[in-house]
Amino acid sequence: MIAVENPHSRPGPHSGEAELHSYDPLRPHSHDPNPAPPSETADFLLSLPDGSQQSVTPDDLSRLPQATVPDCYIISTGHGTSGPFAFSGVAFVDFVRHFWAGEWSEAEVISGDGFGTRLATDEVKGAVKRPILLAIASDSQPLRRAAGLVRLIVPSEIDDALKQVKWIGRVNIFNAEAQGRGDAGKTEECNGL
């Protein structure tokens, strides 16, 4: 089990006091479909292996090299499959490289509503022809907040959508070897769902 602090409980773009709850995004679980974004802002918190943190905005992402992956489908909990879409944004590997020059072993990508997933470095770096994206556009149009801005797109996942995360609220980058910790060092988040 990991520990993830609710990003929408932080000062700055996030308000209130932080709450900690049990949550493990690696264990597949049901996820109620949400008709509305969990927060007003599409900004999210980035945590790096050295303990530093910063807020990242869609504008920040738009200034990084962009990639487009065509023929993507959205498989949503409680809804049918939709698409195909051509999602555009920054390749996750480029996003990490921009903010962290060191080694890293995995990343957690967690929605503002508490749903999340983990991505291993090999999975991210191995997705060359159809890279994993932090999407900010679909079919050449900017994503709206209601459509999931900012959205993690994992083109290789085509059956259960457990790695697709919309309304990203937090990205945690880890280097397990350098940090000398496995799950024990990770943060904990759940918004009461």
Order of helices and strands: EEEEHEEHEEHEEEEH
Q: Which ranges are low-confidence, i.e. pLDDT below 50, for 5 or more consecutive residues?
A: 1-22, 25-31, 181-193
CATH class equals Alpha Beta
Q: Per CATH, which architecture?
A: Alpha-Beta Complex
Topology summary:
Blueprint: E1 2-3, E2 22-23, E3 44-47, E4 53-56, H1 58-62, E5 67-75, E6 81-91, H2 92-99, E7 106-111, E8 116-120, H3 121-126, E9 133-138, E10 141-142, E11 151-153, E12 168-174, H4 176-179
Parallel strand pairs: 3-12
Antiparallel strand pairs: 1-2, 3-4, 5-6, 6-9, 7-8, 7-12, 9-10, 9-11
Task: Summarize this entry quickly.
With 193 residues, this protein is mostly beta strands.
